[in-house]
Design brief:
The chain contains 5 helices and 9 strands; from the N terminus they run ββαβαβαββαβαββ. It has about 200 residues and is of the alpha/beta class. It is globular and about 40 Å long.
C-alpha cells in the first residue's frame, strides 16, 4: 500500500487546485494523487494555522513534512518578513509546493527542500512547524520532534499539531524530555497544538 510519505512512482498524476478560507482570506494550492489530504486541507493543519497565524511568526521558519505546502505557504503569505523553508521526502508533494510558491510569487522568500527529515536541513530556525505523518510511526515522528532542538535558535520554538487519540499526551511527555519548556497552547476537536521552546 502506498503512503503519502512514500510516493509510488507508478501512481497516476492528477494535478488540481484546492482552496480554503481562513480569517476571511482565500488560499489556493496545487494538489495531486499521492499526497496527504489531497482533496482539502486537513483539519489538523487548518487548526494549527488558525492558532499560529495570529502569532505573526518572523525570521526563518521551517515547515517540516510540508506535503503540498498549505502550512508553510500560508505562513509565508502572512508573515511578509519571514523566510520559509518547506521540506518533505515526497518529491511529488514538494513539486506541488514549489509550483504553488511560484504562482503566488513567493520564490524569493520560500525554499523547497527534498529532505528525509533533517537530512538536507541547515538552519538555524526561529520556528519549526510540524504536522507529523502519524502513519510513518513513532520512530519517524519522534525524530522530527527531537531533531528540532538542534535546528532552532536559542529562544526558538517548535509547534506541533497532533490528535489526542493519535498520541498527543505521549508526544507532550516526550517533548518534555527534550525541551526546556513545553505547553499546550490550544485544544480543538481533539487536536492539540503543542509549543516547545528551546
Amino acid at each position: 500500500m502506498s503512503h503519502y510519505f512514500d510516493l509510488d512512482p507508478n501512481l497516476e498524476s492528477n494535478i488540481r487546485e484546492i482552496s480554503f478560507y481562513l480569517f476571511d482570506k482565500k488560499y489556493t494550492y496545487y494538489t495531486d494523487n499521492g499526497v496527504f489530504s489531497k482533496s482539502r486541507i486537513d483539519e489538523g493543519s487548518f487548526i494549527l494555522l488558525k492558532v499560529i497565524l495570529p502569532l505573526h511568526l518572523t525570521g526563518k521558519i521551517l515547515d517540516l513534512g510540508c506535503g503540498y505546502g498549505p502550512i508553510g505557504l500560508t505562513i509565508a503569505q502572512n508573515s511578509l518578513d519571514a523566510r520559509v523553508d518547506l521540506a518533505d521526502i515526497n518529491s511529488r508533494a514538494l513539486a506541488l509546493a514549489s509550483k504553488s510558491s511560484a504562482k503566488l510569487g513567493l520564490e524569493s522568500r520560500v525554499t523547497c527542500l527534498h529532505s528525509d527529515i533533517y537530512e538536507k536541513i541547515e538552519g538555524p530556525y526561529d520556528s519549526i512547524v510540524v504536522n507529523p505523518p502519524i502513519r510513518a510511526g513513532k520512530a519517524v515522528t519522534y525524530q522530527m520532534f527531537s531533531g528540532a532542538k538542534q535546528y532552532l535558535i536559542d529562544g526558538g520554538s517548535l509547534y506541533v499539531v497532533i490528535r489526542r487519540k493519535q498520541g498527543a499526551e505521549s508526544t507532550f511527555k516526550y517533548l518534555e524530555t527534550v525541551f526546556e519548556n513545553v505547553s499546550t497552547i490550544h485544544k480543538e476537536k481533539g487536536y492539540w497544538i503543542i509549543k516547545a521552546d528551546k
